[in-house]
Specification:
It is a single chain. The protein is an alpha/beta fold and 197 residues long. It has a single domain, classed as P-loop containing nucleotide triphosphate hydrolases (Rossmann fold, 3-Layer(aba) Sandwich), CATH 3.40.50. Helices cover 47% and strands 15% of the residues. The chain is built from nine helices and five strands; from the N terminus they run βαβααβαβααβααα. It has a five-stranded parallel beta sheet with strand order 2-3-1-4-5, sandwiched between helices. The relative contact order is 0.20.
């Protein structure tokens, strides 16, 4: 199965990826199109001279099992529309991960600025609403699911996921159920999670 997770920056994809990668049948890669991608795949794409379509064909076809990557709203600027078009044409499964937009806005403010303006919050909420609606319209009739960060972190335990959330996710992937745990490669320190998440 081929899939992609689409979300707003700061929606908890690192935590979600860490859990999913503990399942032996699931491969969840980092952001393919991020300039600071930890896996270096963006540099491979940039240096390859390949089109978006050829690069994604290569990414999906060389993997086995259930494979996907993380894509942020609007990532890659003008190429974002081409990425969505590829996903739609190739019937790629789509997970849309939501998080309270006020929190994603505050996360962005904490990382980029000390200025908190009401107008910026309104603009941020409108942007997230418009982009998430577009994804729902494009992919909602296919292999598509909407998940919420708040459902994933119920009880504030990051060592495990709520079982009903876990079962819903694994059923969508059509893989055998097993308890997921944070993979050893998870790089965010737990003390940092308290601030970021």
């Amino acid at each position: 199965m081929k899939y992609v997770l689409i979300s707003q920056q700061g929606s908890g994809t690192n935590l979600f990826r860490a859990f999913l990668n503990s399942h032996p049948d699931i491969v969840f890669d980092n952001e393919l199109f991020s300039y600071d991608s930890r896996n270096g795949l963006f540099d491979i794409y940039k240096d390859s001279g390949k089109s978006i379509e050829a690069f994604l064909d290569n990414f999906y076809n060389k993997k086995e099992s259930v494979v996907g990557f993380d894509l942020k709203y609007g990532q890659m600027g003008k190429e974002y529309a081409n990425i969505l078009s590829y996903l739609q044409k190739n019937k790629i499964g789509v997970i849309q991960l939501f998080r309270d937009t006020g929190r994603t806005f505050l996360r962005r403010i904490n990382e980029k600025s000390n200025v908190l303006r009401h107008e910026d919050l309104i603009e941020h909420c409108k942007m997230v609403s418009a982009r998430s609606s577009k994804i729902r319209t494009m992919f909602g009739d296919g292999k598509y699911v909407e998940l919420h960060y708040e459902d994933m972190t119920r009880g504030r335990k990051i060592e495990s996921l709520p079982e009903d959330f876990e079962r819903k996710v694994l059923e969508w992937f059509d893989v055998p159920y097993r308890k997921l745990s944070i993979d050893k490669s998870f790089h965010i320190r737990k003390d940092k999670l308290k601030v970021r998440y």
